[in-house]
Amino acid sequence: MTTRTGGPHITPQRPIAPWTRTRLRTAPGSALAFAALVLLTAFLAAAFPRAIDTNESSSLRQDVSGARPARSMLELSTPQPGLELPQSAREDALRPQVIAAAYRKVLPLLPAPVRADTTQSAYGVQTSEFLVGQEAWLPRPDGLPPEFTLAAQAGLARHSTIRTGRLPTAPAGLTMRTKELEAVVTPVTAKVMRMHVGSLVHIGTSDSQALAVRITGVVDPIRPKGNYWSADQTLRNPGLASKGGRPPLVYWKAGLLIAPEAAPALLGTLGEPHAYWRIAPDVSRLTAQQLPLLSDRVASLESGPDLLRLKEAAGRHASLTTDMDDILASHREMRSAVRPVVAVAAIGTGTVAAVTLAMTGGLSAARRGAELALLRARGGSLRGIGGRLLIESGVVALPASGAGLVAAILSVPEGRLVPAVVGVVAVTVLACLALPVCALVLHRRPRIRAERADAVKARPGRRRTVAELSLLLLAVGAVVTLRRRGTSDSGDHLASAGPVLVGLIAALVLARLYPLPLRWTARPAGRLRGALGFLSLARAGRSSATGVLPLLALLIALTTAAFGGAVLSGVADARDHGALLTVGADARISRPGPSGTGTLPDGLEQAVRDVPGVRTVAPVRIGPTFDLPRAHPIKGDLSPALVGVEPQSYARITRELGSDTFPDRARQESPGAVLNAIASPGVAETLGREPQLIRLVGEDFTVRVVAVRSRMPGVVVPEFLLVDASKLRQRVATTVLLASGDELDGRALQAAARAGGKDVDVQLRSEVRASFADLPLQTGTERIYAAAIAAGAGYAVLALLLSLLQSAPERIALLARLRTMGLTRRQGRRLLLLEALPQAAVAALGGLLVGWATVWLLAPGVDLTQLALASVPGLASEADVSLRADAWSLTLPALGAVALAGAVAAGQAWWAGRCGSITELRAGDMR
Prior knowledge:
927 residues; disordered N terminus
């Protein structure tokens, strides 16, 4: 092998200063500002999906845990042991050891994500049929004896504290033939059933099968609203039940707790005892992403493979019942209705943020135009320049994006990581590519001298026309889709992007059209005295051709804010209307009774009138039900209630609240002895419009239906006939008081009502209104939506500032030249203001019109029912839930944009006045 020799080896020298470090040291302020913008955008992009996940997960947990235990629990039960079995086998099947062993087998068989809360789960034996109490001293509201259920529930000592007496025990050698047991009751049961320690109650239908139960203690429940005590509320609180009939006859139902070892004795009664395992769900680790799997597992537990596995542990006749599937379906329906509404704010804010990041790249490329033009003139390639600019942007954007992601994870610890990372990656890519792409577009070919950047030479080409027409068709398709189909498909983001696309088209159209009227106006302005009007209009008419981006950001922000204001306004109006339908006035005072409402004391009406802030009080008298003259052929027999009101006060309340439920013709007198009446739809359809004779006990009268209303203020019965109470010979006692006033004193009103009786209830419209927004998914969605709108407005403001900063050097140079021609500082300030205001005014006016048009176009397809009245689904069909434009959300952002543009222009004029003219006047400068 030969060795090649040559001249001296030359070692390549490193550059004197690396490109990236030099650029960052040259403009550290710009680099820090760019890093702050990227950090904030990355933080929002990562925090937004995690906040949505957190909101949905917490609302799902709240929906499951906040539901009544009777609905959310999983109840596994077996029927009573068969009669074909020997007595010993039947008794052994109900022994506490057998029930507890089955409970321990069932828990591991629950499929994830179904988990059991062992602290509130309960198991034991309980009678399926209620047994009649035979003692005469037991309460009998309508002469009917009370009925009892007996429960041998394990864990009574852990879930209660003894108030008096002791816990029950079972006698030795207990069998199904044992006829005397011990039991404990809760304080409420003891009070209502008139029991005390030592009371003896015989339960059963006959003396031969009656079971003697002696009360040995009164216990206070621990966590009374938990699953242990509220899965079957009869064990904790007695309740009234009805046998039916007209009028209905009511009786008490109560529960007695016996020792678990006494369960076999229940086989000797007609109560049909059954074993049960009431499993309380543990939702502490439940997330919204597990909702589909949870629904599948619950369905499998009810009738699927998982139920077969449970039968192996509890018995082949075991069955599982739960209402959790209904809870999950309701949550899924509400989430599907809310997601598209939130997506509108997310897409709008994301678009404005993307435009702002793109504008930062355009601003930086414009500021460094001379430097990049020099590099291109000296042979710099597009790939080399773009690569250096990409590295320069990445050095700043990558650490800032990482810091934003970490901050979002720390701020919102719950939620999926993948969507957050995807959002941050999108922000990072956009931030890194903004400057190189803008620079390469501006310097596609080397330029010998700086070219004009205004709209004098810019002419829209065919590609731009095709792109704009494509976007127009896309926006029209999104709006038509949303109007036809609505927001039912939460996975289709095209409909949610409707406001953004409408704003995009408006920005492109305005960018093409708005210079024309300004140029036309500049011609007559040139004939006037003074040059300010002509100069300002001429410069505004040929503003920078790159002004589409700030105009786009402003219009999308204003459109999204208008849509958000319309959503919040529609929700607020729907809740106000729903609260009015529920209460009927600003306050309602009533007393519970067997038929819904009881009689109020005579002096309560005057006491309510004396409460500060009460302006009008209207008594409502709900009388007994009566039979209609003829039965409706479809609806069958109706038994409406006769309702009497004072027309003057009742009409005044309805009129003050803006309701037309009590028309004037209902107060007018009819010829003869005919009473004008307002009827519910069913009663009106039965009676017709002709006079009809109504027969009551002790009174007959003739009525004519003059108005039909499905609901009347203060009337709590579904079917009614409302008349003037003064025209009735038989006086009906007051059952409801309606009160209205501007500033009702709720505490004073409740104190006045309590003076009439402890059971008198006061319902305030403001409290009912607040209860409509109690669901976590509603309140969380509203907060997220408001935060997204605020972020979009902030980015729009930043975009406006960037656009004004981009044109700042040119304006300062213009003022310097004009000052050499005799322009004063005051005239300079006026010139900059007059130049900036037309563009801002056009953007504000366009945003206002586009926002209103967007709301009008998308209103039919947006369903706000779940967001407004999810907690009261019965009001959805009656309350007006619709998207409506809000004047404040339309005008305030638009006026704010104009004011901000004027303030920035004034600041630029002030700064230009402080700067000298020497540095701004350079030969060959095309600014």
